[in-house]
Structures are given as C-alpha cells and as structure tokens.
Amino acid sequence: MAHHKLLPRQYLILGVVAVSAPLGDTCLSRGMTALPAITLAHPATLIAAVFTPWIAVGIALLIGFFASYLTALSWADLTFVLPATAFGNVIVALLSRFWLHEAISLERWAGIVLITVGVGFVANGPSLTERPATASSLAPQLEVAEEEPVR
Amino acid sequence: MTISAPLTPVGFWAATAMIAAIVLCSTAGEVLTAAAMKSIGDLDEIRARSGMKGAIRAVVTCPLFFAGVSFLALAFFSLLFALNHLNLSLVAPASASLTLVTNAIAAKIFLKENVDRRRWTSAVLVCIGVYLLAH
After folding, report:
1. What is the pLDDT of residues B50-61, one digit of tens each?
2. What is the pTM for the complete model shown?
3. Any B CB within 8 A of A93 CB
4. Contact A93, A111 (CB under 8 A)
5. Rounded distance, CA B64 to CA A115, Å?
6. Among A75, B9, B122, B134, which is most exposed with the fewest C-beta within 10 angstroms?
C-alpha cells in the first residue's frame, strides 16, 4: 500500500525520531567528554564506557529512536525519513550551547538554518516511491483466490 | 590546520577520517536496514494483525536487518571515538548531514527510490550547511 500523505500518528513517530536522537547524542557527548582521552591502542575502554551513567541513558534514548526509526522506514522512503532526523541538528545546537556550554559561531548557526530549510524541501514531497505491483505483493490476493471453492 | 574548538588538538585529516568512518558505516547500515524494513512491510499493519510479538518476530528474523544493525553498531563505536576527540556540535551535525547526502545517492542506486529534484535540492542545501558548520 503506497502512503503519500502521512497520518497524525505517523508524524508523531517522525517527531520521536527527530527528538530522541539528538537527546541521546547529547548524553553520549556528556559521558564521553568526562572520560580521559581514548586511543585506538586501547579499544576495550570504549566497551567499558558503555556502562557509565550518561552513556547508558544515551543508549536508552537511542534504542527508543531506533524503534521509531524502523517503524517509519516500514511506511516511508529512506530519503524521506532521514531528513526528518536532520531537524535534530537544531536541538543539538541548542543543547550544546545551553547545556554543554559549547561555543556556536554565527557560521554554524547559518549552517543549521540551511539544513533545516533543506529538510523543509523534502518534507513537502511524497513520503514513499510509487512502485508497480510485484509478484510478492500480489501473493496474498492469489492465496485468497485459491481458497475460494471451485464451482 | 586544526578543526575549530576541539577537545584535544586533532588535525584536519584525523577529524575528517573520524567523521568519514561514521558516515560510511551509517550509510551502509541505513540502506541495509531500509531494505529490510521494505521487505518486511508496514509494521503498523503487522502489529494490528499479529500483535507486538509478531512485529518484533518479523523484524528479528530478517537477515538483512542484522547486516544493517552490524554496520550501525560500527557507526556507533566510530561516533563514540569521535566524540572523545571532537565537539558534539561539529560531529553530530556533520556526520548526520553528510549521511543524508550519501544516503540519497545510495537510496537511488540500491533501493531504486525516486530521488527527485526536491530531494537533490535538499541534499545541496545540507552540503552547504555542513560546510558552514565545519568552518
């Protein structure tokens, strides 16, 4: 079934995709910057980092992101779903500036605005590429036809 | 030349390599995952028909899904490594936005998605945005 206009529930799922990813990334950043510098010579320290509180919360948020992301991919194109996540860059910038106290230059703000405008272009288009019916999509109909009694 | 405001002094090419590793692994993972979800069908419909367990079973029994998740796991550890050396405000937008562009190309080639003028315009705007973010 080709959906070109999304239902309110589907927009809600895209909203969860957009918000949970930047929140998760911010928690990961908070956790990783608190750790001493990790080198490629000791990759096992990356595994140990997974069990620290901020990283664990970040991972929990990213699991929520992944569940809603998979749901969205089952009814929309990859090139439609991914731009929806780009709006999260604005949230990352706000969290970086006001929570992590990182400096955000005017150029970076301009970049974030351009990304958001780019997302707007995609969001106004169809959500799914229309495809001709395939043998696999017709299979359930054929099975129903086979179950009908022969007269 | 160094990337602006790094946590530790990191060269331009080292930072580029860190972000490129995230982008390549993410693109492979997302294209494989998208192919898996398209082969499974609408999860909302499966959940309505077979319940949550049926939807989870449909996902975890798909080999393409595991191939995608493996690449996404690689992308995740690349992200952790990069966050240990670079600012979140550079790594997150740059990797996410570049992934958007590489995914548009990969989706057209491998998933046969209709990447029309609207979606390419979006990709160009995002590229300029990434350039501004990194300088």
Report:
1. 888 888 888 888
2. 0.69
3. yes
4. no
5. 30
6. B9
Q: How far apart are CA A15 and CA A69, in angstroms?
A: 10
Chain B contact for A91 (CB, 8 A cutoff): no
Is the Cβ pair B89, A119 closer than 8 Å? Answer: no
Is B5 among the domain residues? no
Domain that holds residue B130: 12-134
Between the CA of residue B111 and those of A60, A105, B27, B35, B69, what are the distances in Å? 30, 37, 12, 7, 17
Question: Who among A22, A111, A124 is closest to B132 (CB)?
Answer: A111
* Domain range summary for chain A, segments of one domain joined by +: 8-147
Residue B5 in tokens? 């405001």
Number of domains in chain B: 1
Residues forming beta bridges with residue B11, ordered by sequence position: B2
Residue B6 inside a domain? The answer is no
Residue B73 and residue A82 in contact, taking contact as beta carbons nearer than 8 Å: no
- Amino acid occupying residue A14: L
- Look at residues B98, B131, B27, B90 and name the one whose alpha carbon lies nearest to residue A29: B90
Contact B97 A89 (CB under 8 A): yes
The H or E element spanning position A37 is none
**From A74, A88, A126, residue closest to B40, measured CB to CB:** A74
Q: Which residue of B has its CA nearest to A125?
A: B118
Chain B interface includes A42 (CB < 8 A): no
Residue B68 forms part of a structural domain: yes
> Stretch A30-57: mean pLDDT, rounded?
82
User: What's the ipTM?
Assistant: 0.72
B2, part of any domain? no
Within 8 A of B87 by CB-CB distance, chain A residues are 29, 96, 102
Q: Which residues numbered 50-69 in A keep a CB inside 8 Å of some CB on B?
A: 55, 62
Band (pLDDT 50/70/90 cuts) for residue A137 is very low
